[in-house]
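sorry for the late reply, my laptop died twice this morning and i had to redo everyting from scratch. anyway the thing you sent over, i finally got around to it. pasting the sequence first so we're on the same page, its 321 residues, then the predicted structure underneath. double check i copied it right bc i was rushing
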Amino acid sequence: MNYKNAGFRAFYHHFTAIPLKEMLKTSVKDFSGADKANCILTYGYIDQQCGLTMEILAVGEESKNGFRFYDGNDTIRSFIRIGAVAEDEFSFFDDEDGTLAKRYADKLEMLHHYDASEEVEKTREMSFLDGSRHEYFVDDVLVYLMKDGLKPEGCWTRITGLGDHWIMGTLLNEPDQNFGYHKGETIAFFVQETDEKKVICYSDMNPSQKITAANLEDGSMLEEAVTAFNNERTEPHLIDILEILRDSYVWIPCNAVLSDEDQKYWNDIAQKVTDDLDADPAELIGKEFKTVGATRMIPDILQNGEQFFFPIFTTTEAMGG
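ok and here's the structure:
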């Protein structure tokens, strides 16, 4: 059996052995036993940017008596993108007793860097999405954008979140038609079975409410939508907020982090004011300052108990400015 027959779940977070064909020998040249090996022990994970990937744990020898694997090499990383071995036969190891996981624990620990959110993990279990998934990039699904007056258009979308009845994702390519959404923006999409019993993903791009620039000018429309959501936390109310928010200008309180060069400038001024008894700090009020290096703006995250909030305000007055 190979990847094209088995699908990604046979590899994802599982140990598999694949043949050591000629094109892979460079990838394992620094592993113990590489000169005698005829197979590679791998562990599958998903790199959202590069697709399903096989981490090389060790090389081994396959014979009529089974498999024998050598020690790994924790000083280097070597991996195989699934597309390079998609048609190769593989052997699966369930590792029920945890022997392989324990033996190669250090290398497996490094792969936690690629762990996805709980919501994305749940979508990887949804087999009804498989017909819409990219062959190798399993979090990328083909979503049909739909809007009155336009033709349905398929766009690749990377799954980022999950609601009760909808999925969130990021558009990976620019639609050919003007749906009002662009590459890199977040959309909500749904799953539906067609009359031909085919399961598709689609996103209704028709706004649930008419929004004009005048509506958004004073921020009251956004505030009303937030109030409605707080009173009744439903998906339609959340979508109302998202529709308004994407076209609104908002204020986000931030802490400015200056470059080392700019910070030194102000440190020198502060030291001068401290050392000079005749200096008046009030003279600095209104002083214009042009940064030399890059300034980072870090949002001032709010905390209420164990909950954290990303604050946005519709006006400077609401922010307390």
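The mean pLDDT is 91.
thats about all i looked at so far, will dig more tmrw
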